[in-house]
Amino acid sequence: MIGRYNEIRDRIVVLENEYDSNLTCVVLEEGLVFIDTGRRIDLAAKFREDMEKRFNRKTSHLLITHYHFDHYGAMSVFKDVEIVAAEAGYGDFSVALQTYLTKENREETVRAWKEEVESNNIEVAPGRLLHWEHYPKNDIFLPTKVVNHKQILGGENEKIIFQVTGGHSKCSAFVYIPSEEVIHVSDNLATDPNGNDGVFLGYSIFFYRPGVCKKTIDILEGIAELPVTTVIPGHGPVVSKDQVIRITQFLRKLDTIIRTSIEKKQTLGGLLADSRLNNFYKTRPEYWTTIIERQYNLISEEIIKK
Ligand SMILES: [Zn+2]
Predict the structure, then answer these.
(1) By the 8 A CB rule, do 203 and 236 touch?
(2) How far is the CA of 73 from the centre of ligand 1 (A)?
(3) Whole-prediction pTM value?
(4) Model confidence over 142-198: pLDDT tens digits?
(5) What are the residues whose beta carbons fall under 8 Å from the beta carbon of 247, sequence distance 6 or more?
(6) Separation of 157 CA from ligand 1 center, angstroms?
(7) Neighbours of 149 (CB within 10 A)
(8) How far does residue 128's CA lie from ligand 1's centre (Å)?
(9) What's the pLDDT tens digit per position in 28-57?
């Protein structure tokens, strides 16, 4: 599945990427617009080259959906074009580039991670190995253009809307292409590469974050209102709007059950035994306890803060 080109429209190709973010190419009259880079420089470079040949156009822009390494890690492939990202988070990213994201500090971080894994005999997931390989060596830098709320690229009949939404991170943005009825929702959605049994939970959202925040559910519910048919997630296969609606209904129901049980002072153990949660999530049953625990803790914190 690594490097599969999914041609979802005549002018939109998604490189569905395993253990990494998806890469997307949208063709405009004036040039190619790429969305996110993944971490592998070789793969991003090949994708760019293939698309330039295929559509006989040069690249004009790279859109970064948020400042997480798995989305901008291979940005050096696009150093000759306009690189667009959110204004929110830009300040933090500039500071990070001078501090924990310097090459020396990234090398040191990976060294420490490896040491920890070796001394505790922890099994390393493939996504982590990929991160360790690319995180310390890639060239990373600031985007050339920041967007406060919304940026539109392309002519009226082909326009691409980059809109900062927050949710997964404060700098998260979606990329909406109305003429194609397609939206890229960044890491506010991650779909499962290993299958879908009707109701699917984007597990990677849960595993790279403490849980799914309320804002993410609001954003996904907003998609149901938009005239789109196809949704590109930050990770995992492209899905239909119907699938996103099912995922969102599932997340909302889960959120409501957990929220009310916390308000009723039910314990985590009691919640895990709650029969209303049965059959909620079949794809990866081994993750269920962790998912509920994280969501329970996240919502508890939210309620305490109020
Ligand atoms: Zn991601």
Answers:
(1) no
(2) 11
(3) 0.91
(4) 999 999 999 999 999 999 999 999 988 899 999 999 999 999 999 898 887 665 443
(5) 189, 191, 199, 200, 201, 202, 220
(6) 30
(7) 12
(8) 12
(9) 999 999 999 999 999 999 999 999 999 999
- Distance (Å, whole) CA 242 – CA 240: 5
DSSP state of 190: B
Q: Which helix (H) or strand (E) segment is 183 a member of?
A: strand 182-184
Residue 203 has pLDDT above 90, yes or no: no
How far apart CA 122 and CA 129 sit, in angstroms, is: 12
- Whether 122 shows a pLDDT value over 80: the answer reads yes
User: How far does the centroid of ligand 1 lie from the alpha carbon of residue 142, in Å?
Assistant: 18
Cβ atoms 46, 38 nearer than 8 A? no
Going from the Cα of 187 to the center of ligand 1, the distance in angstroms, rounded, reads 5
Residues in the chain: 306
Residue 225 confidence class, pLDDT cut points 50, 70, 90 = very high
Structure tokens that stand for 196 in this block: 């879908």
Could you identify the residue written with the tokens 């895990």? 272
Q: What's the 107 CA to ligand 1 centre distance in angstroms?
A: 21
Distance CA 98, CA 109 (A): 15
Give residue 68 CA to ligand 1 midpoint distance, Å. 7
